[in-house]
Amino acid sequence: MDRKILGISVGVTVVIVIIVVMLFTPNLESTPIQKHNEKIGLVINTPHSAISLQDLNQIYSDASSTGIGRSNVYLFWNIIEPVKGEYDWKQSDVLMSFNKNNDLKVTLFFSVINGETLGPFPNWIGKPSLNAIGEDRLVNVLDAILSRYDIVDTVVIAGETESQFRYHEQNMPVYKELFNGVYSKLKEKHPDVQIGNGFALHNVLNKNLEHIVSDLALGDFVAFSYFPVDTLNDIVKTPQEAKEDLQKIFEIIPDKKI
Q1: β-bridge pairing 194-200 and 152-159
Q2: Could you tell me if 99 and 7 lie in one domain?
Q3: Alpha-carbon torsion (77, 78, 81, 83), positive or negative
Q4: How far is the CA of 27 from the CAs of 24, 30, 57, 102, in angstroms?
Q5: What's 168's domain CATH number?
Q6: Which of 115, 143, 202, 233 could form a disulfide with 163 if both were Cys (CB 3.0 to 4.6 A apart)?
Q7: Paired strand residues for 51
Q8: Torsion of Cα atoms, 63 then 65 then 71 then 74, to 10°
């Protein structure tokens, strides 16, 4: 395996679950191979931005050995399509190869909405408003990604969506039109790919934004992240309170896949 240093521009997060596996399973070779469960996944990233391909391969192998069946991969438009119509696959090819070699499906986070911010977008797009992003431009780049990587079976287009519209609910119809247009065109070419939006459940509950989730429960599913925090982001919830928070998902969107 190439020992070159790889700079990955997809976020830097230590995966606690992997650390736990490494601590409590000292001899992975003697551990029975677990069947992969595609409903269980991890965010597989590195403890620092400069890492060898061999080390990254081992991280993916260790994660896969836990029995997970998918990973979350964050790709950014400005990295994938730095020039209009010209795609740079160098970094994403490496990441996707590790997933494919370890028999992992991929949930792709290609968020044009990231909480209160939009993008990041390529320089050739600039800093567009929601109604200027361009339905066809978004369809083209997602189609290119899905056509190249058949292991991607789930796409999240907006993350922490509630924060974007908390003070700008008047823009929700604009986003609904964008999402529905992108959804219908991608489904024509990739009917088996699931497409939806993501929300931060703790923000939704702490700031009474359930109506935004209900209104933007578009596509095939609704994704949630969750931290047991209060409005000041202090971790104060007990396990029972956290469980009750998670149960509220089914009250907010009773008829939607989660």
Answers
A1: parallel
A2: no
A3: positive
A4: 9, 6, 18, 19
A5: 3.20.20.80
A6: 115
A7: 6
A8: 30
User: For 163-191, what is each residue's pLDDT tens digit?
Assistant: 999 999 999 999 999 999 999 999 999 99
Rounded to two decimals, what is the model's pTM? 0.83
d(CA 10, CA 46): 10
Domain termination site, one of 66, 91, 109: 66
Positions of E strands within 37-121: 37-43, 50-52, 68-74, 105-114, 117-118
C-beta of residue 151 within 8 angstroms of C-beta of residue 192: no
From the number of C-beta atoms within 10 Å of its C-beta (0-12, 13-18, 19+), residue 162 rates as: buried
Per residue in 249-258, pLDDT (tens digit) is 999 999 888 7
The boundaries of the domain holding residue 235 are 75-252
Cα–Cα distance measured from residue 180 to residue 218, given in angstroms and rounded to the nearest whole number: 8
CA angle 129, 134, 139 (to 5 degrees): 135
